Amino acid sequence: MKVGYCSAGCSSDRAFNPIAYSEDAQVWTTAKNLSRLARTLEFNLKAGLHLLVLDAGLVPYAAHPLNTLKWTEEFAADFAALGAFVREMGMRIAIRPGVPFSGPGSYPDYYEYAATVLGAMGLGEDARIPTRPGDPEKFYEQFDIAPPEVRRRLAVLNDDVWTIVRCCEISRECSVPIMYDHYYAGKEGIVADLLDACARTWRKNDGLPLVRFSLPGKDADTTAPTIDARQFLSFLTLSRPLDLDILVDFADGERSAMIAMIAAFEEPRLVPKRRCLHAAGLKE
Questions:
Q1: Before 241, cis peptide (omega within 30)?
Q2: Residue 178: beta bridge partners?
Q3: In angstroms, what CA-CA distances link 263 with 57, 235, 242?
């Protein structure tokens, strides 16, 4: 079991103006982002956070028609080094494009970009692209025309439209695993049964089943700003004996992930063991 978070901290805060686009600016910002990612991975390793989900901003404008940079060639050595570090340290990377897979607001080039980044790192099929399915009328059509490198890395999350039962239909039809989303699934039925249904959709080459742990906020349709350690421990109890990789997804990012790691200190499924928490200077 790995625990991690979704990081936007590896992407530059710099806003790009399409009118002022230049390869020089793109090269500079991409180099800066890749350096940030390397430092983030080193920090996460010390903190015992072996799962990192990236947003789509690592290479700015990579999926935009304006892009003229052959960024996979320009940064081939950087991506290879990052991928080697991830593999050697037993970590796991995913990229969340931030747009639905189909229907209004979808942007297929983002998915091709995500698959290209993961491929440039030399990562296996456990490096996934989690997504919301989007438009029920368009998902299968979009899936059929998606490149093979996208299809084999895709993982769908349940939501208020696509329940786990409906996502299971996608899995049966397209052989796409389901990333259980606790924020929505908690309203559907018995958590242990739903987790088991999702876990069964993951094959050996897909890696361990991915799970998103998030909680409702005080107001309707809002997300809690930070994790509740007691609810996380309760979730871990309900998830046994399944072995899972858990994305702790809250606005405070790595802070909630670290709280989850400390709360799960005695969890036998957890990777790594206590020595990683001590190495990061964290206390029980």
A1: yes
A2: 156
A3: 31, 12, 18
The pTM of this model reads: 0.91
| Per-residue pLDDT tens over the stretch 174-226 | 999 999 999 998 777 889 999 999 999 999 999 999 999 999 998 877 889 99
- Which three-class secondary structure state does DSSP give residue 282? coil
Question: DSSP states of 156-169 as a string?
Answer: EEP-SSS-HHHHHH
Using CA atoms, how far residue 116 sits from 33, 86, 108, 113, in Å, is 16, 16, 13, 5
State the Cα–Cα distance between residues 146 and 153, nearest whole angstrom.
11
Determine the pLDDT at residue 13: 52
Inter-residue contact 126 to 152 (CB < 8 Å): no
Single-letter residue type at 262: I
* Domains defined along the chain, listed by start: 2-279 (3.20.20.150)
Three-state SS letters, 230-270: HHHHHHHHHHCCCCCEEEECCCCCHHHHHHHHHHCCCCCCC
Other CB atoms closer than 10 Å to residue 13's CB: what's the count? 8
Do the bridges between strand 129-131 and strand 92-95 make them parallel or antiparallel, or are there none, so unpaired? unpaired
Q: Side chain identity at 37, as an amino acid letter?
A: L
Residues of the chain with confidence (pLDDT) below 70: 9-17, 272-284
Distance of alpha carbon 205 from alpha carbon 126, whole angstroms: 6
